[in-house]
Design goal:
- The chain has 821 residues and is of the alpha+beta class.
- It has an 8-stranded mixed beta barrel with strand order 20-21-23-24-25-26-27-28. Strands 9-8-12-11-10 form a 5-stranded antiparallel sheet. A 5-stranded mixed sheet has the order 14-15-13-18-19, with helices on both faces.
- The protein is elongated and about 215 Å long.
- Bound molecules: ligand C2E and magnesium ion (2 copies).
- The site of one magnesium ion has 5 residues, from strand 25.
């Protein structure tokens, strides 16, 4: 639009410029011709003026002469200047003597004129001259111009000749007329032989042109000036007219362009548009409207927009709509319409009333765009924003919304609300072992199973991960949530089956009450969460009510969580490796040390692994701690080995570590970096983890083996696995859990159990370490059962790294172990 107008503007500009230039040219020619004509007229006038002056002067001279000759000449006293004319010597009465003796001499007209010209020439300014081809006085001899004129007079061709010419470098108008022989002339000139009436010579006058030309130049100057002013005025008028014309033309072009544009917007617009008259009868509709509604022009023109009514809106809606248009002149909003084929669409509609100069409504213009998809998209965005995709339960945001709403309602009606916070037990393990897909299916199945345990209007939401909440409104007694919690726990007791495998899952539930345990959604949730942790701590698969003193435990847990994150991210030196010796019963040597992590918390002091490792596992920080301990263990064992001790090191790995595919790669990196001997490093994995190994984790164990590392199964006996199963794994050692060893000296069943484990392990080529040996009796029993190695306080408690070498030295020299009887 802009470019089209700019181009049109240029075009109009060029046209107006061209016409303007043509007008300027014509105007210039008119003014120029006028000036030239006026100058010419001025020249003619000057000439005429000079001619008239010349004629007047000529006539005056003529009058003098005629008067003189008609009186027979004039006698004057001869003076030196006017001596008797020698050219009239032939006249007898040329000289007279008066009676009183005065001498007089004759002066003829020519003589008189000449005298006057000579003496008073300057007074006159105009020179007069009598000339002839035949003359008395040679001074009167005609010059060539005069002679030519005289000849033309004689031929009777003309009776006057005038011409502007230069005499002595000055410009003059010369006028000459014939002089005829008359009777009065015969007296002096009769002897020259001219008959009366014959051209005897000529009389001329010369008028100097200079003063006239000066006046003329002034007049011409004024003329040029006035014409110049006039010309400029004309240019101004042309310029003004040009500008006005071009503005008008551009305005017209723009108006045309706008009309064209409006028409094309109407015809090609993407929005369906209809124009109705003031009575709402459709006058026009555009193609987009036909496309949108499926109607044709014939079906629409002359009808009313109500053909689109979908009956989704009541009469009130339309009343409002028309009220808006009449009051404000427009209405816009969402409206559900119906197409010709009966299908319904949501439209965004703009209706504008068009008024005439008097303010009367002439037309209504309605533009309609189909926003069905947008509305649907908004709806799905709303769903995404409020619902959990996986389980289709309300998500955290909607949960908070509903809970907040329920709280304000309960506050008004003085009712109780119970909030149940549910966390699946060991979900991470299932997820890690069976894969995320199965984990997702499990969550979906849990959601499906729990829904029927609840009332329809209870809000059941998934906060994320394996955390669910239930909001029970209008709780009358404490029994209500207990019933629900029991139903939930019951519903989960049935096994879950996924691709032929059975899995069990339970949940821990924390319950908080409004208004007892808090009056905000956040507070209630936090307290239910605390209660849930309590349920977990007290054996899982149960529910607990929130009790105020729980917060202490909760606070401690939060403190530890925060501290762990800071330690791992910023200060891993807070984690120390302590070492407990593993003693070989046969060689009676310390063959290795087990590295056991200790966390030196900046304010809480030394924290034992049992207190933070489960948390670190939950927070997925355990792998970084384990690798840190591995690095320390490799470094320290290298130091001991270099000092001559043939001692290995064993390091604990959490099963969670095996979730990272990079684990084997990172372990190999640490071995290389610390220059450790892989055959002297044993990795311990607890039996519980080893039971659920997937193919990925198996591969990691194989990688460890190929690096040359040794593997031990820790806490053997607690996971109820069979040794045969372990045989399929690249394991070298089993460590019998302390709980089996504790009563070995006095309990025959334990003794038998341990002895059969040792026997079976040996048959599978596995070495055996008995853990937790505190007494010599225990040691003796194990020695008699052919156990390979022992570990326990009897040998030594775990030692800080810097105490290992002194311990080793003392131990060697002492050699006073009580068992060594
Ligand atoms: P564990 O691997 O079975 O380690 C043996 C535990 O038994 C150690 O407890 C040790 O101090 C204790 N113990 C050894 N001898 C005796 C005894 O004669 N009597 C008694 N009552 N206890 C004895 P600790 O150091 O508290 O470690 C507990 C558990 O924490 C370890 O059990 C291991 O599973 C885990 N752990 C320790 N360090 C690490 C680590 O760096 N990474 C991982 N993932 N877990 C670790
Ligand atoms: Mg261990
Ligand atoms: Mg153990």
């Amino acid at each position: 639009m802009h470019e089209a107008i700019a181009a049109r503007r240029q075009e109009i500009g060029r046209l107006v410029m061209r016409v303007g230039l043509a007008l300027v040219a014509v105007w210039t020619v008119i003014v120029g011709v006028s000036l030239a004509w006026n100058i010419h007229r001025q020249r003619d006038l000057t000439f005429e003026l000079v001619l008239n002056t010349a004629r007047a002067s000529f006539n005056k001279d003529l009058a003098y002469r005629l008067w003189a000759s008609s009186h027979g000449g004039v006698y004057v006293e001869p003076t030196e200047k006017t001596p008797p004319s020698p050219w009239m010597a032939h006249l007898p009465d040329r000289d007279l003597t008066t009676t009183d003796g005065r001498k007089l001499t004759l002066m003829n007209p020519a003589y008189m004129v000449r005298e006057m010209m000579q003496d008073f020439g300057t007074l006159y300014g105009i020179k007069g001259r009598i000339v002839g081809i035949v003359y008395l006085n040679p001074n009167n001899k005609a010059d060539p111009w005069e002679e030519a004129a005289i000849k033309r007079f004689s031929a009777m061709a003309v009776d006057e000749v005038q011409e502007e010419s230069t005499i002595d470098g000055l410009s003059y108008l010369r006028l000459i007329r014939p002089m005829f022989m008359e009777q009065s002339c015969q007296k002096c000139h009769g002897h020259l032989g001219f008959a009366n009436g014959e051209v005897r010579g000529a009389v001329g006058v010369s008028v100097p042109m200079a003063p006239y030309r000066e006046a003329e130049t002034r007049a011409v100057g004024a003329m040029v000036l006035s014409h110049g002013v006039f010309w400029l005025l004309g240019l101004g008028v042309i310029g003004g007219l040009g500008r006005r014309t071009s503005t008008r033309l551009i305005e017209k072009a723009m108006a045309e362009e706008e009309t064209r544009l409006a028409a094309s917007v109407f015809a090609n617009g993407l929005e369906g548009t209809i124009i109705t008259n003031a009575d709402g009868v459709i006058l026009r509709a555009n193609p987009a409207f036909f496309r949108l509604t499926g109607f044709t022009s014939e079906e629409v023109i002359g009808r009313r927009p109500s053909i689109l009514r979908s009956h989704h809106h009541d009469d009130d809606f339309y009343r409002h709509l028309w009220h808006g248009i009449k009051e404000d002149g427009y209405w816009q909003g969402e409206i559900t319409n119906r197409r010709k084929d009966g299908s319904v669409f949501v439209a965004w509609e703009n209706i504008v009333a068009v008024r005439d100069g008097q303010g009367k409504i002439r037309y209504y213009i309605a533009s309609i765009s189909d926003i069905t998809e947008k509305v649907q998209a908004q709806e799905s965005i709303r769903r995404l924003a409020h619902y959990d995709l996986l389980t289709e339960l309300p998500n955290r945001a909607l949960f908070f919304d509903r809970l907040t709403h329920a709280l304000s309602h309960a506050a008004r009606s003085q009712k109780q609300i119970a909030l149940l916070f549910l966390d699946l037990d060991g979900f991470k393990k299932v997820n890690d072992a069976l894969g995320h897909r199965i984990g997702d299916e499990l969550l979906q199945e849990v959601a499906r199973r729990l829904r029927p345990c609840l009332r329809l209007d209870d809000t059941f939401a998934r906060l994320g991960g394996d955390e669910f909440t239930v909001v029970l409104e209008s709780v009358t007694e404490r029994q209500d949530p207990i019933l629900i919690a029991e139903r939930i726990l019951q519903a989960l007791t049935q096994p879950f089956k996924f691709s032929g495998r059975e899995t069990f899952i339970s949940a821990s539930i924390g319950i908080s009450f409004y208004p007892e345990d808090g009056d905000s959604a956040e507070e209630l949730l936090q307290h239910a969460d605390t209660a849930m942790y309590q349920a977990k701590a007290q054996g899982k698969n149960c529910f607990r009510f929130y009790a105020a003193e729980m917060t202490r435990t909760e606070r401690k847990r939060m403190e530890l969580e925060h501290g762990l994150r800071v330690a791992v991210d910023q200060d891993p030196d807070q984690f120390q490796a302590w070492y407990q010796p593993i003693f070989c019963l046969k060689s009676r040597q310390v063959i290795a040390f087990e590295a056991l992590v200790r966390w030196l918390h900046p304010t809480l002091g030394l924290i034992s692994p049992a207190d933070f490792i489960p948390l670190a596992e939950d927070m997925r920080l355990i792998d970084r701690i384990d690798l840190h301990v591995l690095r320390l263990a490799c470094q320290n064992s290298r130091t001991w080995q270099k000092l001559g001790y043939d001692i290995g090191v064993t390091v604990n790995l959490s099963g969670v570590d095996l979730q990272s595919r990079k684990l084997a790669f990172e372990v190999a990196g640490i071995l290389q970096e610390t220059d450790a001997i892989p055959g002297k490093v044993t990795l311990e994995l607890t039996e519980g983890f080893v039971l659920d190994l997937g193919p990925e984790q198996r591969r990691i164990l194989d990688d460890f083996k190929s690096i040359g590392l040794k593997l031990a199964i820790d806490d053997f006996g607690t996971g109820y696995s069979s040794l045969r199963y372990l045989k399929q794994l690249p394991v070298n050692t089993v460590k019998i859990d302390r709980s089996f060893v504790r009563d070995i000296a006095c309990d025959n069943r334990d003794k038998l159990l341990v002895s059969s484990i040792i026997g079976l392990a040996h048959s599978l080529n596995l070495s055996v370490v008995a853990e937790g040996i505190e007494t010599v009796d225990q040691l003796d029993t194990l020695a008699s059962q052919d156990c390979d190695h022992i570990q326990g306080y009897l040998i030594s408690k775990p030692l800080p790294a810097d105490r290992v070498l002194p311990w080793l030295a003392a131990y060697r020299t002492e050699e006073a172990i009580t068992w060594h009887k």
